[in-house]
From TrEMBL, chain A:
GO terms for molecular function: 4 iron, 4 sulfur cluster binding; metal ion binding. It comes from Oceaniovalibus guishaninsula JLT2003. Keywords: 4Fe-4S, Iron, Iron-sulfur, Metal-binding. Residues 12-42, 73-104, 106-135 form the 4Fe-4S ferredoxin-type domain. It holds the Pfam family Fer4_11. This is 4Fe-4S binding domain protein.
From TrEMBL, chain B:
GO terms for molecular function: 4 iron, 4 sulfur cluster binding; metal ion binding; oxidoreductase activity. It comes from Oceaniovalibus guishaninsula JLT2003. This is Thiosulfate reductase, putative. Residues 14-74 form the 4Fe-4S Mo/W bis-MGD-type domain. The keyword RNA-binding does not apply.
TrEMBL record, chain C:
InterPro entries: DmsC. One of its GO terms (biological process) is anaerobic electron transport chain. The chain crosses the membrane at residues 7-31, 37-59, 80-103, 109-126, 138-156, 230-249. The lineage of its organism: Bacteria, Pseudomonadati, Pseudomonadota, Alphaproteobacteria, Rhodobacterales. GO terms for cellular component: dimethyl sulfoxide reductase complex; plasma membrane. This is Dimethyl sulfoxide reductase, C subunit, putative.
Amino acid sequence: MTTLPATTDRKLGLVIDLDTCVGCHACVIACKGWNTQNYGAPLADADAYGAEPVGAFLNRVHSFEVQPGDGPAQIVHFPKSCLHCDDAPCVTVCPTGASYKRAEDGIVLVNEDDCIGCGLCAWACPYGAREQDPVEKVMKKCTLCVDRIYNDTLPPEDREPACVRTCPTGARHFGDLADPESAVSRLVAERGGFDLMPEQGTAPVNKYLPPRDRDTLDVLAPLLPPVDEGPKGFLGWLDRTLERI
Amino acid sequence: MSEPGIDLTPGTGDRVAKTTCYMCACRCGIDVHLKDTAGGPRVAYIEGNRDHPVNRGVLCAKGSAGIMQHLSPARLRTPLRRTGPRGSGRFEPIGWDEALATVAGRLSHLRATVPEKLAFFTGRDQSQSFTGFWAQAFGTPNYAAHGGFCSVNMAAAGIYTIGGAFWEFGQPDWDRTKLLMIFGVAEDHDSNPIKMGLGKLKARGARVIGVNPIRTGYNAIADDWIGLTPGSDGLFILSLVHCLLKAGKVDLDYLARYTDAAVLVDEDPASPTHGLLMRTEGGAKTVIDRRTGKPAAFDAPGVRPDLAGRMRRAGTTHRSVFQHIAERYLSDAYAPEAVAGRTGIAPDRIRAVAAELARVAFDEAIELPRPWTDFRGERHETMIGRPVSFHAMRGISAHSNGFQTCRALHLLQILLGTVDVPGGFRFKPPYPKPAEAHPRPHCGVVPGQPLDGPHLGYPQGPDDLCLRDDGSPARIDKAFTWENPLSAHGMMHMVISNAHAGDPYPIDTLMLYMANMAWNSSMNTAAVMDMLTDRDADGAYVIPNVIVADSYASEMVAYADIVLPDTTYLERHDCISLLDRPISEADMAADAIRWPVVAPDRDVRPFQSVLIDLGARLGLPGFVTEDGGPRYADYADYMVNHERRPGIGPLAGWRTGETGIAHGRGMPNGAQIDEYIRHGGFWTAHIPDNAAYYKPWNAAYQDWAVATGLQDKPTPYAFNLYCEPLRRFQLAAEGKGRRQPPDHLRERIKATHDPLPIWYPPLGDGHADPAEYDVHALTQRPMAMYHSWGGQNAWLRQIHGMNPLYVPTRIWDRHGFAEGDWARLVSPSGEMTVPVAHMAALNPDTVWTWNAIGKRRGAWALDADAPEATKGYLLNHLIHELLPPRGDGLRWANSDPITGQAAWFDLRVRIEKVPAASVSHPVLSAQTSPVPPAPRNVAFEMPG
Amino acid sequence: MHPAPSLIAFSTLSGLGLGLLAMLGLGLAPVAGLTGLVFFALAFALAGGGLLSSALHLGHPERALKAFTQWRSSWLSREAWLAVTALAVMATYAALAILAGIVVPPLGGLGAALSLGTVFATAMIYAQLRTVPRWHHWSTPALFLGYAIAGGTLLSGHVGPAAILLAAMSAAQIAAWVAGDARLAASGTDIATATGLGGRGAVRLFEPPHTGGNYLTHEMVFRVARRHAVKLRVIALLLAFAVPVAFLLLPFGHILAALAVLSHAAGVAVQRWLFFAEAEHVVGFYYGRRLP
Ligand SMILES: Nc1nc2c(c(=O)[nH]1)N[C@H]1C(S)=C(S)[C@@H](COP(=O)(O)OP(=O)(O)OC[C@H]3O[C@@H](n4cnc5c(=O)[nH]c(N)nc54)[C@H](O)[C@@H]3O)O[C@H]1N2
Ligand SMILES: Nc1nc2c(c(=O)[nH]1)N[C@H]1C(S)=C(S)[C@@H](COP(=O)(O)OP(=O)(O)OC[C@H]3O[C@@H](n4cnc5c(=O)[nH]c(N)nc54)[C@H](O)[C@@H]3O)O[C@H]1N2
Ligand code: SF4
Ligand code: SF4
Ligand code: SF4
Ligand code: SF4
Ligand code: SF4
Ligand SMILES: [Mo]
């Protein structure tokens, strides 16, 4: 299983809009809740009420600060989960075959029954998308909610990842990135979606949409001309204008 | 090799119960997936209810983490009686019979003798129409909820000006607005709706301008960031007003038709009505009718109010409000150049913002083909929209100049003609509702009798103040006094310190519900803890009895003499009522319920039901039947059968009409709660299209509101650019009128109670030396944490387990800070040592931290060395409820002088680098936990 | 990376043990009689103990057998195969040599190759990781092999060659450190490519996703202070090379030899600690700042 499929029929993945994400962590917790009850072992929290709580999460939201050469600094909230890479190094390093990429849709999964918890796949992932469960000691990662998207016990509109369903701003989009006509592919094309760490050669499926340019107002705005600079100017103007109404 | 078979279709549970989230006050609809286990149904998973008007299926981090709150190890298990000294946290379990008998015994004595000696204050609950009703029946004037320290400036300024407020009572027209300007919002009560709305704007590429000293969250995604100096928004806004007026970019038609801009003001300094509005015999506001040039009632049919109106009558000049506005704000004092220094915003940027507001409001105006008829009977073929919207929250209201700043923002909205129009700001039912239509405050106490009316309300002038015959405050929190006449929500943050000082009088029992007053909802927290434990000469506690109703082992619980343990939000009935803070959206009236989707596994009771029980034991009117028996079995019974006015109850949906089910108005329906449950836990009534905008003046809306039971008769009104109640207080301060303020307050009232929006520096700046305390210190709500109660949540506390102080680049460099450093923060009232972190996207004179992450050791079932207790801290320790003494021998509250709003964000500090510490200071003693220790690891999966 | 004691012990001990096995296999150390027994015992103890301790690093050691399945693609799987076959071949070789007194050089040669192959595979587990630019280089297996051979030579008591190899290794190690220090910067991965925000300005982490640690910060975002690292490098060089060489240059004695070996082993352990501790994983760009 460790070898990667040459191609996958579909490339299911997420498109994350950095222009829109407010950093609310809703996707983080929705993911935790769903995946605690479903696929594999529950996502555990060690020392849950103690001094050093460490839990397994499949999706985390970082915040970066960008200081442009001119203009004020910006904050960009940055959600990150597995990018379901086409050239997933996490899969090829796995000694047991527990890690694999599905040929039909490209989803990268861990078969927990086969995982020995060696951690190598987490080392191989440049994105920090894999975390070992602190209690069950098997590798955990985003499943792309494989147990939701094909789940016919759910109403059709709910067959999308938990993080996408919950995102209050709609910053997360799910779809088939192999299909150039899909909504996600079009978004990527329109908004200049990009890869994280392209030089790592992982060929991620998930794409990120860049924040739009910030602080452009001063440049754009034509200034307001005064109505009348004369001494009784404003009231004069008021009278004239009221006449016209 | 073949891929392993995986279960692609796991069931999420055996059943879904639809109820309302209560991880915060936003009231989203939730689908609670339940699994049936041997021990009964258990909660397995919570997700958003797609049909729900508030959240449309989305859920925030807190909402999704509800399961961990519901299972928190900090849940109280049983009623408790204090055994150790106050604050120690040592208790013994007692049964409900004993707890209720003790409380009822105490209260019945108070009610018969001195009802005001019970102070009953509630925090983040959502049943204030019920708790207020109970307190009124009890007869104490000392009741309020947390609004006074929360955002009463916003609420009051909105209601006095436009008859509604931002907060969660109105919202931008998310589908149509093209420019949103958002002031001082980190999260707000409308947490999910705002995020959903921002998402809509982003999807359309509409522009968002964030005004906030800190650029995180909503401000991070704003296209433009105005990182102004805290407390200076009023100046910034009035400078925008200046620019717009100068350019004539104001909506004259809207101003004339729908606002008091054309109403005439008495300008004779000698007149007893100097500065008041001219009225007709019938009491209507008077304008000059442009058709005739003669005075006329503002609302008379056919009248064309003249914005340039003026007249002399009996030797007195009267000029329109609008001329006063023009005169004031065209002044160079409000020119961008004049305000740049104080606001920290360059003149060009101010002009650019003004130009953009004008461009979008007037050049991109929209028109909906929806005919409507206004209150003068005039028919309009379309609805004109100015697609500029504003939203604001505590960033402008939690300052001591907040009321006037909020008013300034409403002035700006109105000048642009963008309130309740397409693309603008929209009211949510039961708003619009002007101040005049709200009750006025009541404080008439007679032992053994109910209070003479509702506690809280909107005073119209000195006559409505809550003063005793000797002029002293009637309420323990001194709300509705000359110190803060329009304290429409009360002043909860003053209760403990006033009760401790016996000023205006000592009390006997402090009953708190859902408020962590010994911790994050108090200013000056450490001192408040001392006040709660302070004893008199006889060794008795200065505040003799403290009763706390809480669900969790909070910091406040440790200071209780009796603890009444509440359920979690999934284990009780709640009523999110139109009488209260409903879940309406701009297009609909809506209310909702919570209901017990699982039964408690502890000896706890819903506090509302406990109040009903106490009400019956005390024989309170409204809580007993004619024969003296209990009137309601529990809160659910009250929700269904209580009638506030005939036909109007806590829940508007599925009432009983003449011919069957009726909505809005109707007799109680025994099956009402079942109907709510069947319909997803909520009820909605859509506003007809032709009534959906221009609501204050729209005859169709007014009729709909009457039919729906929101109001008893049509009450169209004009927006109040001119706040006449303020002028009445000013007049009194000038020596006119029956009730007179104490002398020491005259100058302050004259200066601050201006009927037109003004800006003055935060009052604290006149008490603390701004040069010595040169840094502004703020807090923000973290989106993934709710005040103190999120800290017990195993999932959320990993996101925010401690809170560094964020320091802007200039201060960071000046002090040579590096990663991992600690700083001492000193305010005029205290000091603390905290970890620092660098942030460039921050106003250069401001430091800040996340709110309410710090915890007292031993609270919330957390380990004593939990980061919340070691590295986390509360900025509240530095914020005093009183301003530093100024040598005048007076106690000046750290509050807005108009509303009494707690001025959390006026805080000034100085900062210095100190050697790295391992724990943040002050270090407070630990409390004993009244609940069993928490489990070490959590790996929670419901058995299938 | 977090320098896990089990991994340090594993790579230090198994490297030495496999190096000695290679020597034994090649007949460069005494294979017969009591001396042979002692040497084999030492070699197996080191190599076997190291491999066992590596199993301690596993979350599910009881499933370790599954690790043999993916030899086609996984270096870890290959390492498992190589280690087991190396030990098996060498055990046969040893048994024949000691019990039957029959030395089978081809078998020994095969065992030596497999032993060094195991070391190579171990090194490749690290060298294949593009995510750790410091490791992602041919010098990683070269160095591991060098250590194994030098250690094996030292253990097998070849004073002169050992001294020369140790001296050479110290130079190689210094060169590797110097080259390794520059590799992250040269890798092309930085916070700009990690976030894709580089085009907008200078990027830094503002807030990590959680205030506490997590598996990744514990495993991969370990940081060792620069000053600290230099000191440890000096200690590693002294213990692994300088002290043993000095001892070797003194008149030969068993005590001194033992001390030289212990010192070398300690030095290698320090070097391995640094190998992990200094390995900057690119995921660190997402966790740029640790809260106090
Ligand atoms: N520095 C600073 N301080 C602030 C603010 C600020 O901005 N900066 N903001 C202020 C504002 S606006 C507010 S509203 C306050 C909020 O402060 P509080 O009102 O004190 O809010 P919480 O900390 O959430 O505490 C509420 C209490 O309710 C209890 N509780 C939770 N759920 C239930 C329940 O179901 N039933 C019962 N009976 N109890 C329950 C909790 O255990 C807790 O003890 O903080 C204020 N304090
Ligand atoms: N997740 C979450 N949601 C909550 C709560 C919670 O605890 N957690 N609490 C609820 C409660 S009780 C309330 S009252 C609401 C409050 O909702 P918000 O008003 O959004 O609350 P704060 O976090 O106090 O936000 C104040 C904002 O004002 C900014 N600010 C401070 N001073 C100034 C100023 O002078 N000018 C401007 N323009 N901005 C300024 C601060 O930087 C901050 O961003 O949130 C509610 N929603
Ligand atoms: S839920 Fe959406 S907005 Fe919130 S952090 Fe996740 S992606 Fe961002
Ligand atoms: S993001 Fe990481 S875990 Fe996911 S497929 Fe790519 S390399 Fe593997
Ligand atoms: S931790 Fe599990 S999934 Fe990852 S490489 Fe090891 S065996 Fe494979
Ligand atoms: S797709 Fe599912 S598993 Fe992946 S991050 Fe989203 S919620 Fe978590
Ligand atoms: S905003 Fe979040 S916590 Fe508040 S009610 Fe909605 S889902 Fe619950
Ligand atoms: Mo609040």
